[in-house]
Please model this.
Amino acid sequence: MTDSHTPFDHRPDTRLGAALREALTAPGDRAAFVARVLAAPARPAAQPVEYFLARWAARGIVAAAAAAFVAGLVIGRARPSSEPTVSDADPGAMIADVQAEPNMLFASNPGH
Amino acid sequence: MDLASAERAIVKMATEPQRPNGDARSPQEVGDASLVARARSGDREAFGTLVDRYADQARRVARAVLQDPDDADDAAQDAFLAALVKLDQYDTARPFGPWLMRIVANAATDRRRRRKVRSAVSLDEGLVAGGARPDALAERAVLLGRLRSALAELPERRRVAVVLFDVEGYSHAEIAQVLGIPEGTVRSEVFHARRKLRALLADWRDEE
Model:
């Protein structure tokens, strides 16, 4: 830093820059770092636990959905066809053929 | 980052034929754009040269964000691998350094957000608190510790701005590109950072 420098100066401050450079330069060897970067993809990288949990969770959800779908298909096909089903026919039409006897109708009403 | 993509890129480099020795220029003499072009085509040596060329710079910028040197190295490594994957997106008409430093700064910021808050007690703090200064080496260590502590107190963007400007020699316009902020804001960040750090250096000078 020189006295001619102001904070507004558009030129790099060599003294401050040199001190910061020394303070921030890592103690490790650069060649070792370069080798580490180039070798990184070749070995399995250490991943955080959350990474594996996320992957497992995603796979688990897909597997559960697939299993539920298959189970639904199997159960649906295995149901016997003779089993009574809900009809959407007109209830009035269903009892149209049934003739109620007048005695039965009036038996519940003693006054008549 | 996408580890699988990085792995594919490295495997591609390892399996494809390397550049013939007919190129008379040494890797150091070849410009960044040319190195990127060669790395894109699978030249492992070219990518290694780029890493070697920018390793110190990337590690310093990452350390300006993260403080911890080991974390900084991890972030710098992440950044280089991310850059390898994204090389196709790099515009060779523009300087490579700011493009890479943007990736480095982002990688460091991502890592800082992910990591848990650690105990902040460090050797530097002990040094800042004062103590015996038996020799010049120890005095220098105290100064550097104070400088790191002062830097750590600055907002992250201000730290990166002053390091890129005064240490790495980038222009305000390039730093604006790295940080994604207006050039005037970069000037302001550098101004405020310098004011604080210079005061520290001046105090140190007075003590000497």
In short: The two ends of chain A are 120 Å apart (CA to CA). The CA atoms of residues 29 and 37 of chain A lie 13 Å apart.
